[in-house]
Amino acid sequence: MTRITADVRFLRGYNQALVLGVGRTARCFERSTVVQATGLTPQAVSKVIARLGADGLIRPTGARRPGVGKPAIVYELVPDSRYAIGAHVARRTLRLVLVDLAGTVRRSAVSPLPGDFTPPHLLDALRSGIDTMIGSTDVRNRLTGVGIGMIGPLDHAHGLVRGAHGLRHWHDVPLREIAEKHLDLPVHLDKDVTAGITAEAWRHGATFGDAALIMIESGIGGGLWLGGAAHRGAHTNAGEFGHTVVDLDGPRCVCGRHGCLEIVHRHATEAGDLARAARVVAVGVVNLLQTLDLAHVVLAGADLLRHPETYLAAVTEAVQADARRVDWLRTRVSLSGLGADAIAAGAAMQVLDQHYGIPELAQT
Ligand SMILES: [Zn+2]
After folding, report:
1. What is the distance between the alpha carbons of residues 19 and 24, in angstroms, rounded to a whole number?
2. Which residues pair with 84 in a beta bridge?
3. How do 229-231 and 296-300 pair as beta strands?
4. pLDDT digits over 14-43, tens only?
5. pLDDT 10s digits, 87-114
6. pLDDT digits (tens, 9 = 90+) for 184-235
7. Could you tell me the distance, in angstroms and rounded to a whole number, from the CA of residue 313 to the centre of ligand 1?
8. Nearest to 157 by CA among 174, 145, 171
9. How far apart are CA 364 and CA 321, in angstroms?
10. 213 CA to centre of ligand 1 in angstroms
11. What is the pTM (predicted TM-score) of this model?
């Protein structure tokens, strides 16, 4: 009995996610558009449309009169019917965004965090930042939750920050739980780069293939999108791209190993050798491509965005020269279209996915 209920609920959520997906990509749609795009039956689509309309997530905008037969009702997504807050916690800054149901960043703000900040520091900054961002109670009533994209290593499944490199007060901190209590809102906690790659997947839609988002900030990480979903790995700690070794005899890294990409890159930037810093990242990206065979590589992060063209050129060149020796292997390298908001926006989209996305993907 329980199983049947669960399956029915799954199907309902699944169909709803498909219709909302069409609403996000097409400005206006009819029942027949959804039938064509999803393969659902007209009856099933009618049911979902009625339910989404009753919840205020979509609305009719008019009617199209075909030559023959009854007029067809045209619908659109109601972007401001639901919102989510996204937070990007970096070592020195907290960036917050307000994202609507269509995935558009409506507001964005960045504030400094104290050096070596503690969990209470972050919770207070989150609460005051969110209060300022929301403003009216009208928006608060439509808020589905808060997504936090945080520095790893991090246990997404249990909502624990396991031991953020370079932050002394962040060992086994149950951030998801304490943030839910402090903010009185549902909280989704994920690694910063996994949130970032989710934002890219939303932006690109169904055409997005296997991909990585390479983020260069005070640390370096790589979020992975594999087989149509964010890839978190066996312990939900995938993405520690900065701690893959590129120089066996290199300098000691914060993680304890020698010659990690992150520390070799940092030494190059500190020496003012930007070309070498970009090449170090490019070598890492080529290693990743050889392992995973990706269709897209997206570059992001505050430090990268100071010299976006240098990094883009170095990675593009390395991918063409080193990774692709045959003409049927092609990888597109690009800068994140969301700029500095990429991680925070992705964290907010993860919250919207949890409520309105495909159920089995949203749970992971
Ligand atoms: Zn390391």
Report:
1. 9
2. 99
3. unpaired
4. 888 888 888 888 878 999 988 988 888 999
5. 999 999 999 999 999 999 999 999 999 9
6. 999 999 999 999 999 999 888 777 899 999 999 989 999 999 998 999 999 8
7. 25
8. 174
9. 36
10. 18
11. 0.90
The tokens for 65 are: 């009169």
Q: Distance between CA 159 and CA 112 in Å, rounded? A: 24
**246 Cα to the center of ligand 1, angstroms:** 10
Distance 25 CA to ligand 1 centre (A): 40
Residues pairing with 173 in the sheet:
161
Burial class (CB in 10 A: 0-12, 13-18, 19+), 287: middle
H or E segment at 102? none
Q: 256 alpha carbon to ligand 1 midpoint, in Å?
A: 6
Mean pLDDT to the nearest integer, 160-180:
92
* CB of 118 closer than 8 Å to CB of 175: no
Of residues 297, 327, 331, the one with CA closest to residue 311: 297
Q: What value does the mean pLDDT of the chain take?
A: 91
Scanning 142-252, the segments in alpha helix (DSSP H) are 175-183, 192-204
Q: Where are the alpha helices (DSSP H) in 212-330?
A: 261-270, 274-292, 302-305, 308-318
Q: Are 83 and 144 in contact (CB under 8 A)?
A: yes
Contacts of 321 (CB under 8 A, 6+ apart): none
Angle between helices 308-318 and 274-292 in degrees, nearest 10: 40
Distance 259 CA to ligand 1 centre (A): 7
Could you tell me the distance, in angstroms and rounded to a whole number, from the CA of residue 240 to the centre of ligand 1? 9
What amino acid occupies position 11? L
Q: Identify the burial level of 58 via C-beta atoms within 10 angstroms of its C-beta, where 0-12 means exposed, 13-18 middle and 19 or more buried.
A: buried
Helices (H), the chain: 2-25, 31-38, 42-54, 119-134, 137-141, 175-183, 192-204, 261-270, 274-292, 302-305, 308-318, 342-356, 359-363
CA distances from residue 6 to 18, 47, 51, 229, 360 in whole angstroms, order as listed: 18, 19, 19, 22, 12
CA of 237 to the centre of ligand 1 (A): 14
How many whole angstroms separate alpha carbon 224 and alpha carbon 211? 6
Compute, in angstroms, the gap from residue 267 CA to the centroid of ligand 1: 13
